[in-house]
Every structure is written in structure tokens, then in C-alpha cells.
Amino acid sequence: MPRYYEDKPEGGACAGVKEDLGACLLRSDCVLKEGKSPRQCLKEGNCKALKYSFFECKRSMELHCKSLPFVDRRSQVYRTFMTQEATRRT
């Protein structure tokens, strides 16, 4: 069973999937029998499902962060919010 279901390790939202991917690569025949590095084995297509899961996790985090408006006093979002607050208070 993947570790990210058991408990959430520290280090971010995708840390559990990343840890599982590393463990998968270290247990692979590519590393153990062929003596290649985990990075080489990943490039050769080992642990594809976990690689894809990690990619999707990182991508979803990036998309989530891009959807959050940054509070900049010059931005339209900030000016609109402040205008609405001033109108509501009066």
C-alpha cells in the first residue's frame, strides 16, 4: 500500500508520492540488478504510474497557486476589493 495513504509525511503536498516513487525506483530490477541510477531508471520508464501521479500532483499544485490572486495594491483585484469594502462600510 502506498505510504501517502497511511500518513502525510512532512515536506509538502506531494511528498508522499515522491517518497513512494523513490522507493519504487530503489526496489526496481533496473537499480538492483543492472546497477543503474534511479534517475536513469526513471528516464527508461520504470515506475510509470507513480511518475505520472507525482507529475499530476505537482501540476495540480502549480495550477492551484496560479489561481490565487496576489495582493498587490496596484492590482485590479485589490482595488475592486477595497472599493467594495468602503461601499459596504458606509
From TrEMBL:
Provide the alphabetized UniProt keywords: Disulfide bond
| Record family assignment | Belongs to the PET191 family.
Q: What does this protein do?
A: Involved in an early step of the mitochondrial complex IV assembly process.
Pfam families on file = Pet191_N (PF10203)
Specify the protein name: Cytochrome c oxidase assembly factor 5
The answer on whether this UniProt entry bears the keyword Glycoprotein reads no
Q: Does the keyword Ribonucleoprotein apply?
A: no
- Gene of origin? COA5
Query: What is the organism lineage in this UniProt record?
Result: Eukaryota, Metazoa, Chordata, Craniata, Vertebrata
